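Late entry, evening session. Most of the bench is empty. Finally got around to the prediction I had been postponing all week. Sequence below, unchanged from the version circulated by S.P.
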Amino acid sequence: MSRRKKRWYYKPTQPIQTQEGIKARSKSGKFAENWWARRWIAALERITDAGRLRRGKRYAQQGQVLSIEEKDGAIHALVQGSRKRPYKVTIRLQPLSSQQWEAVLNALSEQAIFTAQLLTGEMPQDIETAFAQAGVSLFPNKSTDLETHCSCPDWANPCKHVAATHYILAEQFDEDPFLLFRLRGMSQEALIEGLRSRRAEPTTAEDARESSEQTPTAPPLEESLTHFWRLAAPLDHFPTAIREPVTPMPILRRLGQPSFAQRNIEHVFAPLYEEATRQALRAAYGEEETQKEDPDSK
């Protein structure tokens, strides 16, 4: 007689509803605003079970993630499930070695635009090419890049509590792109300092000698007071391009929320920064701001 394999069935459970959780900005559709946060979710969907991610997305949208904290190079969260005590979730990205980071910094420093954008708190659009040049990835591209743990009894990985934390973490990346670097083992300060030192140092002794020979000696300030603000030569030959930042309000986001402010300064100053950007683009390109015609007015 053939024996039938015994199957275990688990009764579906519903999470305990809470008003104390982190309210996800997204209630439907895409979960992240900026490309790097969307890239994080896309990476997860490629290396993890899509069905469990969907269940986690519902948890995140319902506000079941009570807290999320960056500590000791990892993400720690509390997620309210079907039991009274919230589950503890830990997410850790495999950090890059010091040799790997040296290769990444060398690759990044070869492009001046990367340094310029990172200094203003922006995530360069093509930054993955520099990581690929160094033979590594900023985002997880295989399951071993991610180490996750949850205190719930679910044996599957990711469980819905870990998946919910992934989505809330994506919104954290929206606010702070440097969080990705820190989870890979490089602080923002060390990253910027490493790029600055590489951009400042000549690559060879010959480069250093040529640089010193070509650097003109500035005249004393007293001799140039009358024409200090005048251009010494026209800049028609100098290529310039003014564009909107990839990251909205990068300076405000880099400065962060001051402890003394009761209101979100990004929301308070956003209209001023947006208007300043429009004025700068209009002045740079000589464009007139056009009024969009309302089709209903015809």
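Two things to note before I forget:
Residues 35-194 form one domain.
Residues 1-9, 288-298 have pLDDT under 50 and may be disordered.
Will write this up properly tomorrow.
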